[in-house]
Amino acid sequence: MIFGMFCKIYLFSFIVAFSVDKGNCVILDILPGLIVSPEATHLTVKCSAATDLGITTLDNISIRKGVEQMASIVLGGSATAGTGFDTSKYTISGQLPGPSYSPTDFLQVEISDPDCTDGADYTCVIKAAHGVGPISPDPQLTQSVTVQTGSSELNMVANPDKIVFFENDVVLLTCGGKVGNPAQTWNWERQLSGSSTWEPYPDAGSITTGSLNPPNPDGPTESSLSPPTLDAVNEGDDMTPVSCTHDACNPYCERDWYKEFKDLVTTTNGVLDLKNMKRVQAGTYICHVENPGILNSELIKELVLAVHYGPELLQLNPNSVAPQQEGSSVPPITCSVDCGPVCTIAWYHKSIEPGNVVPTSNGVLKLQSITRYDAGLYICQVIHPVSASNSQSVEIDIEVNCLPSEVTISLSPVKEEYDVEEEVTITCSGGVDHSIKFQQSLSDSSDWVDYDGVTDSQPPGDGCSDKQSTALTVTIGSSSNGLSFRCIQNNNLSESITLKVKQNNHNGGCSINSFGGLVLTAMVTVVVI
To answer: Where are the transmembrane segments (predicted)?
Structure first.
């Protein structure tokens, strides 16, 4: 049969009037009286000289508790506390201004929240004189004070110390504590399983009454954890139970688990066993073992629990950017993620070369003074430091609007003068974000006109293509001398090139001018360079 027990102490209180005793020239007032009830909040001891015994001068007043001096006051001085009585528990007051005796001269000690230790013999001593000289010996008066207290600090200890017992097991239950003054009565009661009421324990023959004088307390000397350390736990998993044990304690030891030295963790028989672990449960756990009967007897063992989680909540801030002008800087892009432990964050420029790592700081992508080659797809990849396969990535596209390319024009072959009927290739180079076209100007004109029928056949590009060139081939005629060419792209002009033709006369008086000038070939070539 399993049942519970508790011990009950009946309290008694007394109402006592205050005491005033006068004798041998001394008055000793004790308030509220020589017997102080548990409900009293103050105990006052006041010492003065009798007014009807012919005292003329009063030089000193002192109050003793047993043999210890609690307080004193000398003629013309202030009341002072004795050693050990200068705490907030004691309030010392008095007056002895002199030079002659006054009925208002006194010394007083007020004791807050009196307890059984304040029960003692209190003595009032004065140094005084009357008309014929000093009074000798010093007048004094002693009164004995009893401070009643109720029971307190009750506890129950089971031996053996366990929760579950089997039928026919023997268990020794010891109820201890301060029984009060005067000593209160012990009574045992039990509450049987399934019952809601307490009843007197029937087997009075097995109860021993009297003062409890336990042997000298000792222990613990060592404590241990089994296992002493644990590997990290994945979020949602259960931890491996860890048992905290200690060697022998007398009379017993208290054993508790705390998180970070502050939060008490509910355990059974000293076993830390956390289920469905959450990331907030990661940290340092402490097993605290202490013998309540020995000051500073605590032993501490620490266990570090790590909880792995993530990566999750991967995001970019901002998650998109407007197209950027070549030469500008892209606003910083922060890649953040929630990981435990901290994940590795890396940026890659996928559009240039897969796996091309971009230098970053703390997961922040910063692109400054960008060119057309910085355009493309950027990838932020996070990798869990424990499981490399547990990774995530997020992408962002960076668009770059190119600045207009420099437009150039050149001749091939390059000569100072060209022969009539010689073929010359004129090449115009630039980007293909807009069409390239040729313009010409006659030697006797300052006007530039589009060269008829010859324009770049390429449509406008995306603004960031590689540089291209457009070439046309012409045949030199006698009237080509002084003819100038230039090319234009998006209103950007190249420098002009002027043809110089040799002027040689042929036999028969025929002139090269008879060819009628420049002859255009039937092709335009676009060459990527």
So the answer is: none
Euclidean distance between CA atoms 496 and 455, whole angstroms: 17
How do 172-178 and 152-159 pair as beta strands? antiparallel
pLDDT tens digits, 210-252:
554 555 788 899 999 999 999 999 999 999 999 999 998 887 8
- 155: helix, coil or strand? strand
Domains with residue ranges and CATH for the chain: 1-212 (2.60.40.10), 223-305 (2.60.40.10), 310-401 (2.60.40.10), 408-528 (2.60.40)
Indicate the pairing of strand 233-234 with strand 307-317.
parallel
User: What is the β-pairing status of strands 133-134 and 121-130?
Assistant: antiparallel
Q: Which of 102, 61, 69 is nearest to 86 (CA)?
A: 69
**pLDDT, tens digit (0-9, with 9 covering 90-100), for 412-436:** 888 888 888 888 888 887 754 456 7
- Rg of the chain, C-alpha, whole Å: 54
Token pair for 453: 């029928």
Q: Which residue has the higher pLDDT, 278 or 404?
A: 278
Candidates 497, 326, 488; CA nearest to 416 is 497
Give the Cα-Cα-Cα angle 93, 20, 127 (nearest 5 degrees): 55
- The span from the CA of 413 to the CA of 344, in Å, is 58
* Nearest in space to 398 (alpha carbons), one of 455, 338, 460, 316: 316
Q: How far apart are CA 388 and CA 66, in angstroms?
A: 78
Q: For every residue of 70-134, which 3-state class applies, written as one string?
A: EEEEECCCCCEECCCCCCCCEEEEEECCCCCCCCCCEEEEEEECCCHHHCCEEEEEEEEEECCEE
Angle (CA) 46-47-51 rounded to 5° is 120
Tell me how far CA of residue 472 lies from CA of 269, 466, 525, in angstroms. Answer: 96, 20, 7
**CA-to-CA distance for 117 and 68, rounded, in angstroms?**
13
* Cα dihedral across residues 110, 114, 118, 122: positive or negative: positive
Rounded Cα distance, 252 and 267, in Å: 18
CB atoms within 10 A of CB 419: 13
Q: Which two tokens stand for residue 47?
A: 């010492």
Assigned token pair, 375 = 């355009």
411: closest CA among 428, 396, 397?
Answer: 428
Taking residues 59-82, what's their average pLDDT?
94
Task: Name the β-bridge partners of 136.
Answer: none
Per the structure block, which two tokens stand in for 4? 């519970």
At residue 12, does pLDDT exceed 70? no
The letter for the amino acid at 63 is I
CA-to-CA separations, 418 to 477, 499, 502, 525, in angstroms, rounded: 10, 8, 6, 22
CB 377 within 8 A of CB 354: no
Question: How far apart (Å, rounded) are the C-alpha atoms in residues 350 and 356?
Answer: 7
pTM of the model: 0.41
Helix or strand (DSSP H, E) at 91: strand 90-95
**Virtual CA dihedral for 469, 475, 478, 479, nearest 10 degrees?**
-40
Segments of 247-390 assigned E as strands: 254-259, 263-265, 271-272, 283-290, 299-305, 307-317, 324-325, 330-340, 344-349, 357-358, 364-367, 376-383
